[in-house]
Amino acid sequence: MAIRKIITPPNPLLKKPSLLVEEVDGRIRALVNDMFETMYDAPGIGLAAVQVGEPLSVIVMDTAKEDEEPRPRALINPRIVWAAEEEREYEEGCLSVPDIYDKVVRPARVKVRYLDLDGQPREEEFADMDATCVQHEIDHTKGILFIDYLGRLKRERYLKKVIKKAKQAQEA
Ligand SMILES: [Zn+2]
Hints:
The chain has three helices and seven strands; from the N terminus they run αβββββββαα. The chain is globular and about 45 Å long. Strands 1-2-3-6-7 form a five-stranded antiparallel beta sheet. Strands 4-5 form a two-stranded antiparallel ribbon. It has one domain: Peptide deformylase (Peptide Deformylase, Alpha-Beta Complex). It is of the alpha+beta class.
């Protein structure tokens, strides 16, 4: 296992839709292990493969609180097949979008179809924090960042700042 580097803007991969996984093999399971290690190290509650530079439709998440047993989950080729009308607002952040948190409104419950680590198709309902997290991660597989839901001015101001910071880090 290895901790991978998490990419940030302006890396163009973050805006690209990920490819579907054709076969859940050892390579995918190794990637998932790396993603868990990277997510727990960060620390974060969710991570998509594209965030470690692998544009494949793979996400991991664990929304357990610090005093709870870990609940690691890996979803291959996840897609939302149903969403509740009821909404939930949460102040989101993202390991690939550092130094900004903002409120995003999403459906409070969703049903997701995906493959598990044995390649078996599954369907599962996610609610509350799990619903927010799984939707945020599935967005990554479509090239969508949570800041895409914020106003254009806010987003552009943020991106300018981040890109300037990245450039300064490179020059230093
Ligand atoms: Zn994210």
